């Protein structure tokens, strides 16, 4: 009986990391916005290390006139006092932007997106759980 228990425990421990990584490797999308814009943040792989992030801006009232907005991203881990440098997001066309941040530890991060357009800056905070 003890051998069966040890065997089942080893099997569970052996498969658990694979199961957990499949849950945490899935991309994550969150949406927020203002009365003027809808913003969608997509984290391709919410794990520590280099993390690719997509940002999509969608104007709520038709097409945007003038130059493209400047978009930046900073990841903050308030419970540990960590923050990444502010990273400029690169315009990919049709309201899509992308950037990469380097996350040094797991935890409940806040991804702060800043959008500067026409002399106004809007900030959006997205809570993201990052695993190891």
TrEMBL record:
Domain of life the protein comes from: Bacteria
Protein name: YtkA-like domain-containing protein
């Amino acid at each position: 009986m003890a051998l069966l228990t040890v065997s089942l425990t080893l099997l569970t421990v052996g498969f658990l990391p694979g199961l957990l990584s499949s849950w945490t490797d899935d991309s994550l999308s969150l949406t927020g916005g203002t009365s003027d814009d809808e913003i969608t943040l997509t984290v391709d792989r919410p794990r520590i290390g280099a993390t690719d992030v997509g940002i999509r801006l969608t104007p709520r009232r038709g097409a945007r006139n003038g130059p493209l907005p400047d978009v930046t991203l900073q990841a903050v881990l308030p419970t540990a006092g960590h923050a990444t440098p502010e990273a400029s997001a690169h315009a990919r066309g049709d309201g899509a932007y992308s950037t990469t941040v380097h996350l040094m530890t797991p935890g409940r991060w806040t991804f702060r997106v800043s959008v500067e357009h026409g002399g106004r800056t809007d900030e959006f905070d997205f809570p993201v759980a990052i695993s190891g």
